[in-house]
């Protein structure tokens, strides 16, 4: 049985080594100019250092370039991809076809992961982008377990699935927070999201608090709960899903290390002894719940929601 990759998004360069020792196999890093909703900001110097550290530990590093690029940024893409090629990046995440075109010129051998956040919902589309050059498709978070298994059974590319963390519910390219404060007559600079961890939209009717932040890519509203399926990994492992992702956006370094350890244990248990995993999976879920902040309950996301046509 193939063991899936455990992929984590670190908050900073100093997270790489602890997360590697905790059991992470690969990392997604980058800077907000090119990547969407990263757990931390990595300058080019930090990207180089992260690659050196991770490769020294036998781990992989993927760099996010999955933002939507307007014409004023397109000219920078080839230069950044050339930098990543020289630095030794293991893959580049892309959603905008402009990145694919730039990679064909700047680094035709670069491994590409197709990640549009929401539109990877069927195996035909995944295979289409595979024929265009993508080696992996990052599936949308709004898919059921049955849909994920069906996609993997028919996919000609690697399949990545998020198994833990928050989900983006809404993004606008506009500076909605800044406009709101300006409308209120308040001169307030919206900080970089690494410092901005306590801003919420409060839905009184549903009794939910939605984390919200603003960065170079606009305004992002996140889910009120964190998904967690540490006790439901078996079906996807058996189907051969290639990568399980822990999303670290708005999480602390300490939290990520502990959650990574739990998922490492869960994956290894299932591959080595499925019966033992079945015995211990409820305990693993309870440990995950103990790590959660009070305002971040766990749920199973869309994995077991019924699809309505």
From TrEMBL:
It holds the Pfam family Peptidase_U32. It comes from the Bacteria. This is Putative protease. GO terms for biological process: proteolysis. It comes from [Bacillus] enclensis. Transmembrane segments: none annotated. The lineage of its organism: Bacteria, Bacillati, Bacillota, Bacilli, Bacillales. Signal peptide: none annotated. Keywords: Hydrolase, Protease. One of its GO terms (molecular function) is peptidase activity.
């Amino acid at each position: 049985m193939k063991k899936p990759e455990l992929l984590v998004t670190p908050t900073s360069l100093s997270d790489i080594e602890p997360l590697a020792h905790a059991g992470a196999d690969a990392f997604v890093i980058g800077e907000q100019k090119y990547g969407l909703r990263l757990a931390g900001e990595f300058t080019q110097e930090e990207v180089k250092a992260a690659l050196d550290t991770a490769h020294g530990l036998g781990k992989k590093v993927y760099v996010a370039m999955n933002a939507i690029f307007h014409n004023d940024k397109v000219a920078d893409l080839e230069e950044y991809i050339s930098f990543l090629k020289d630095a030794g990046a293991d893959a580049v995440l892309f959603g905008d076809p402009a990145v694919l075109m730039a990679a064909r010129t700047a680094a035709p051998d670069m491994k590409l992961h197709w990640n549009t956040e929401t539109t990877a919902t069927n195996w035909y589309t995944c295979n289409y982008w595979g024929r265009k050059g993508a080696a992996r498709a990052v599936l949308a978070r709004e898919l059921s377990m049955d849909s994920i298994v069906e996609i993997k059974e028919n996919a000609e590319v690697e399949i990545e699935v998020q198994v833990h963390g928050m989900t983006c519910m809404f993004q606008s390219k506009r500076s909605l927070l800044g406009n709101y404060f300006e409308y209120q007559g308040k001169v307030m600079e919206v900080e970089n999201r690494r410092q901005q961890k306590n801003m919420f939209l409060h839905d009184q009717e549903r009794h939910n608090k939605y984390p919200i932040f603003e960065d170079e890519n606009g305004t992002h509203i996140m889910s009120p709960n964190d998904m967690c399926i540490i006790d439901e990994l078996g079906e996807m492992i058996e189907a051969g899903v290639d990568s399980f992702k822990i999303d670290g956006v708005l999480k602390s370094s300490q939290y990520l290390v502990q959650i990574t350890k739990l998922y490492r244990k869960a994956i290894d248990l299932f591959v080595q002894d499925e019966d033992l995993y079945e015995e211990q999976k409820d305990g693993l879920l309870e440990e995950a719940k103990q790590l959660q902040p009070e305002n971040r309950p766990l749920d199973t996301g869309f994995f077991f929601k019924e699809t309505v046509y």
